[in-house]
TrEMBL record:
This is N-(5'-phosphoribosyl)anthranilate isomerase. Keywords: Amino-acid biosynthesis, Aromatic amino acid biosynthesis, Isomerase, Tryptophan biosynthesis. It comes from Sphingorhabdus lacus. It holds the Pfam family PRAI. CDD domains: PRAI. It catalyses: N-(5-phospho-beta-D-ribosyl)anthranilate = 1-(2-carboxyphenylamino)-1-deoxy-D-ribulose 5-phosphate. GO terms for molecular function: phosphoribosylanthranilate isomerase activity. SUPFAM superfamilies: Ribulose-phoshate binding barrel. Pathway: Amino-acid biosynthesis; L-tryptophan biosynthesis; L-tryptophan from chorismate: step 3/5. One of its GO terms (biological process) is L-tryptophan biosynthetic process. Belongs to the TrpF family. Its EC number is 5.3.1.24.
Length: 213
């Protein structure tokens, strides 16, 4: 199975086109207003329409109100909704019962305990995205966590790796972790919130080269 690739924090058509052309399987649209990668709802809906059918659209929310969450899902109609705040398994279970959209939960990995506790999302999320712990922002920090923690972990859910992944280190990350999915945002940018089309292509190529090695 080819590694799944999510390019997160796209804000315009050029980024969506570049990620799709490069072979990303998922693109992320960020509705968190404090992020340099924020897109307003209407822009997210327009980019969703622009995205080719084979590429899944991931809508990113951080501790959003239920009403706003419902509105965002209705307007953008994503394939996946990624929760990147302190959303509880209980809340995600409620949402899961009310929508057919795929649900991902991002977790900032501090230590082995974070991974152990992630089992509480079984039945609440379809996939766990293991990311670096929150800094000033909950995600998109460009920081890595200790990948060796994953070696001891028995995954009970589908999962992906995020946090500080770049074209230069993603092959090594895949070798060490055997992640079925990788996610990057700042690692394919020239400045916060500004995607670099060449880096997107290099990232996807590095993943595909690793898949074929
Ligand atoms: O990217 C952001 O600005 C962001 C802000 C708030 C919550 C989540 C955010 N990004 C979520 C992602 O899925 C990123 O791709 C992930 O955190 C990895 O980011 P990076 O370390 O920059 O590759």
């Amino acid at each position: 199975m080819p590694t799944q690739i999510k390019i997160c924090g796209l804000k315009d058509e050029a980024g969506v086109d570049a990620a799709s052309r490069a072979g990303a399987t998922h693109i992320g649209l960020n509705l968190y207003e404090k992020s340099p990668r924020y897109v307003p709802l209407e822009q997210a809906a327009a980019l969703r329409m622009r995205t080719p059918e084979q590429v899944k659209v991931v809508l990113l929310l951080v501790n959003a109100e239920p009403g706003y969450t419902a509105k965002a899902l209705e307007i953008v109609k994503p394939d996946v909704v990624q929760f990147h705040g302190t959303e509880t398994p209980e809340w995600l279970r409620v949402l899961k019962g009310a929508t057919s959209v795929e649900i991902w939960k991002a977790l900032g990995v501090k230590d082995a305990e974070t991974l152990k506790n992630s089992a509480r999302f079984v039945g609440a999320a379809d996939l766990l995205l293991f990311d670096a712990p929150a800094q000033a922002l909950p995600g998109g920090t460009g920081m890595r966590f200790d990948w060796s923690l994953l070696a001891e972990h028995r995954h009970e859910l589908a999962w992906g790796l995020a946090g500080g992944l770049t074209p230069a280190n993603v092959a090594e990350a895949l070798r060490q972790t055997r992640a079925p999915m990788v996610d990057t945002s700042s690692g394919v940018e020239s400045a916060p919130g500004i995607k670099d089309m060449d880096k997107i292509a290099q990232f996807c190529k590095a993943v595909r080269d690793h898949d074929h090695s």
